[in-house]
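Hi L., both proteins are below.
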Amino acid sequence: MSEGLERPTIALHGIASVAGRYVIGDQAMHPGINLFACRLRMIGSDNLRVTAPVIPQMGEIVSASFTSFGTLTGTVTRQYDDGFEMGFVQSDAERDALNARITSFSEKLWTTTSDRRSAERVMPSNPRTVIARPDNWSQPCLIVDYSISGAAVSAAFQPAVGEIVTVGRVTGEVVRLFDFGFGVRFFEPQSADHLESLLEAPDEWRDVMRRTFRAAQ
């Protein structure tokens, strides 16, 4: 930021309904390699935090895009076991514009309501889970949204249509590829009351991921 008058710093925490996508590095976008989906957890004047399937290296360049906030570019300043934080590279004018978008979005949160149960497709409260193949290969992934019949998933690979995968503890078939991931159709329709818990990663897998993350710090 250039020198001048001090500008206000604002932040919005506890966001659970904003999905976006991010690109790691400054190379061309390639799904499953450097382009992934993410879920916003905090956004402020100078930084944001997301839940993500792939965690970039400290200091790595990232561009994150959200419908409500536009495309924000910066570098990774902190890593978490389920995502990362990035600080923005922006001008004074870009910072002011972002502050206006954050303020507008915050005001809308207080004036709109939604019934999560009535939606055909649902955003899980804990979107980061595990995806596995029949040969016991597995890795972290992010559930963009789901219904009783399938889920949209983002991960560090791009499977073939027709491939069999297990998301959390629900098995299905890859039926569609997106620019940020792929669609999985479950072999059997699931119970709406229990599906979100079935899509969560098993506790033992989460424990291993946490230990791995801490060991790398």
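That was the first. Here is the second:
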Amino acid sequence: MSSPAPPKPFRTYPDLVALLASRGMQIHDPSRAERKLVQLGYYRLSGYWYPAREFKMNGLQQDVCPVTGKPLRLDTFQAATSFDSAVDLYKFDKQLRMLMLDAVERLEVHLKTVMAHEVGYHDPMAYTNAKFILNKWTQPYTDRRGNTRNKWTEWSQKQQSHIARSKEDCIQWHFRAGKSIPVWVAVEAWDLGDLSEFFELLNSKYQNLILARLGLNNAKMLSRWMQQTSHLRNRCAHHTRIWNQASPNPLAVPVEPYFQTLGLDQYALKRLYGLVAVIWFLLQRIAPASTWISEVADLIDSKPAMPGCTLKAMGFPDETGFPRELFGI
């Protein structure tokens, strides 16, 4: 196996500011730029100015990376790209993450409550009982790498480790009292990923009980929604850029007047706009008085202007702003 190529040379903050300026970035206050690099880091910010880098052209066509299939970029920046705008875009993304976390928290708590209630009614220890699980998930299978696996066993081990590490008072009390931990207590140690996997593993009888509480009838679709919401939650919790992130696969949506009005295409359903539409669809069912979508709309309309950083990159149909009329706001 060949050795990896050596890393790029270390650069001081003044060197990094000078490098950006040499590539065409407008830097109105070099001292402030250095402070921001100290606070936020060059590579964290680089994700925000990356879309403003010029494309590598092959004649009149954009050069494409043979590995990713994405257009190749030069180090130089498009005209009117400024350091201050990149920082503003970072701040915009941070506010967006806070709004997404607010919605995800409401969904996660509600889903925990609903799921624990519906299976706990039949057995307080349902999450440890294989009879609640679709039979195929309790059987071993061979993955793409030739490894023998069992989804039910893997999930059980993972969530039990989360319970064992939990410092929640309710769980610690059960440990000290020597009592079995019922599902409505166990869910307090689960993250949204655990929850979405448990829903996917459940027998359709119990999936349907949960779906009915949300006014839905497609378990595969809800499972995918929960997975993508979990990915979003993790990116937000780890302060990772979300504004222009894309999923490899589009979300599915039900044939509902709400989604028909929005007219989301496959591009939108791979990006944040599609996920916002799904989250709001669910929020309206569990928190009908919520004004979350208005807050999202106000923030989207305040997105900083920077070359290459478009609303289209978020999945919106055009650059006119948040489509308030489609959402009835």
